[in-house]
Amino acid sequence: FSSVFPSLNMAVKRREQTLQDYKRLQSKVEKYEEKERTGPVLAKLHQAREELRPVKEDFEAKNKQLLEEMPKFYSSRIDYFKPSFESLLRAQVVYYTEMHKIFGDLTAQIDRPGLSDEQRERENDAKLSELRALSIVADD
Q1: Which of 14, 72, 85, 118 sits at 20 to 30 Å (Cα–Cα) from 136?
Q2: How far apart are CA 92 and CA 100, in angstroms?
Q3: Measured CA distances, 62 to 3, 16, 57 (Å)
Q4: CB-based contacts of 21: which residues, under 8 Å, 6+ apart?
Q5: Is 37 helix (H, G, I), strand (E, B) or coil?
Q6: What is the pLDDT of residues 49-81, one digit of tens each?
């Protein structure tokens, strides 16, 4: 199903990439918060927080979109596959109905009263001889 809709995989991959960037910048901010609060460290901390904010917003937006759309997407799978399954079931019904009719006819022919096994065998041999006599049948 995912091969039919490659954009879904791409959206998940973009979200994962954004998550990695977010985690990287978050660890950078945490590293500066743990250091001693001096002028250069505070400047770097402020800069890291400024870098983190748009990445965090981007991640949250992508994550929210996937959380909203993925359930809808997965529930639509049924609508995608349902016609194929219905067609398969209809084809099976037709096939088994025809097979039932054919086997019913064959059973009725085999169960004809009054014929012995030898008579049936002679009848089959006669029909096979007719078929062998046709010009389209090759001799073995």
Answers
A1: 118
A2: 12
A3: 21, 10, 9
A4: 55, 59
A5: coil
A6: 899 899 999 999 999 998 888 888 778 778 878
Question: Which residue type is seen at 124?
Answer: N
- For 82-136, the pLDDT digits (tens) are 888 999 999 999 999 999 999 998 888 776 666 777 887 898 899 999 988 887 7
The distance from CA 29 to its chain's CA centroid, rounded to whole angstroms, is 42
H-run or E-run covering 108: helix 39-110
Q: Which two tokens stand for residue 71?
A: 């359930």
Report how far apart the first and last C-alpha atoms of the chain are (Å, whole number): 51
**CB of 48 within 8 A of CB of 21?**
no
Whole-angstrom distance, CA of residue 25 vs CA of residue 115? 91
Give CA–CA dist 24/52, Å, rounded: 9
Given a contact cutoff of 8 angstroms between Cβ atoms, the answer to whether 33 and 45 are in contact is yes
Question: According to the model, what pLDDT value does residue 23 have?
Answer: 92
